Amino acid sequence: MSIAEPIPGRDTSTSPGPRSIPRVTASGAGPGPGNSGLVLVLNAGSASVKFAVIEPGRGRRVLEAVLHIKRDTGDPVTEQLSDGSYQAAITRILSYLPKPGSGPALIGAGHRVVHGGAQFTESVVVDDKVIAAIRSFIDLAPLHNPANLAGIEAVTAALPDLPQVAVFDTAFHQTMPPAAYRYAVPEQWYTQYGVRRYGFHGTSHRYVSGRAAELLGRPLGELRLVTAHLGNGCSAAAVRDGLSVDTTMGLTTLEGLVMGTRSGDVDPGMFGYLADAAGLTAGQLTETLDTESGLAGLSGVGNDMRAVQAAAARGDERARLALDVFVHRLAKAVAALVTSLGRLDALVFTGGIGENSAPVRSLVLGRLGFLGLAEDPQANARHGQDTAGRISVPGPALALVVPTDEELMIARDTARLIAGT
């Protein structure tokens, strides 16, 4: 187990704030007058635990880092721990917090939980019923929900009196109408097994929708947006009047756009064909589509869009194809999602690729002129991970870059729910 160096004091608020780092204590107390306290935000994955300590009222990060359950030599390492359990990871994270009584209180922990099925339409305070429900969705998110549960259980063991909140990736999309979330499959598959489209990256889509409304100076409740969360995992959503009405991901995180190692949409007939032709099982096929496909499978240079773009620029035909397929599928999805909106006010790019790849944004906008979108090359080159703003020429529909902040969204949900208990 290795831990990357914590990064203190990053300010994520929309207005400047002090850069000093307050000291932290562990406490189960709720927010006091004039002080919302601090929230520990955990995103426990299958190979790492990303964490941050955030002052939700001001949007200021006190501390953030990634602790790796499996050693990855590509990441900066400051120490190696012999115990690779989540409990050890949480214990190490908590060791960064100063002793009680030395500063603002830690009022709660917020957890990203990937799959909440149709049961959770918003974030909730964690209790035994919530834990049981998260466990019941493990079959739908086998790589994510067990890790998310492990994070909750580890915090409970270390700080049993600290309130915890689960923030579900799927919750934001539970406003989709049946026409958007139902598959054309036998009714029993839906009623008995829950086979339907759930959608993911909801916390990010929710955050950037709100920030887009602020940037546009218009109420979110009157906007028609397509939000594109583009990273190693990718999804786009149609957000109408602040509500998700359609999205590209479905029952699992495999459906939809081309991603880093995930295929996105494929013909389901491929399973039967390859079972016969290659002797592959459903499990083997799913694993390959999940971990060896997408940009990595097409390009041959890996799942990092920067490497794909560099190889394409050198004339690598496979990398060029990977870039073309990625852009084609994304532009196609954006256009399709507009049919659920009636009109398009703004296309919002976010996530690692969405925020950092001006070439991808340029290529996508070049295919969407019929929606009234046209790139402003100077603005597109100027805006990105550190700056939000318009990247298209003025018109009835705009394209924006909005850096996402899922951790801040989780922290604010946590503080709000704890204050209400």
Radius of gyration from the alpha-carbon trace, in angstroms? 21 Å
Gross geometry: globular
What structural class should be given to the helix and strand makeup?
alpha/beta
What is the count of DSSP helices, taking H or I runs of 4+ residues?
Answer: 15
- State the separation between the terminal residues, measured CA to CA: 36 Å
Helix content: 25-40%
> Oligomeric state of the chains?
single chain
What share of residues are in beta strands?
A: 15-25%
Question: Which regions are unreliable across 5 or more consecutive residues at pLDDT < 50?
Answer: 1-35, 71-81
Total strands: the figure is 14
What is the typical, i.e. mean, pLDDT?
87
Order of helices and strands: EEEEEHEEHHEHHHEEEHHHHHEHHHEEH
Biggest pleated sheet:
8 strands, mixed
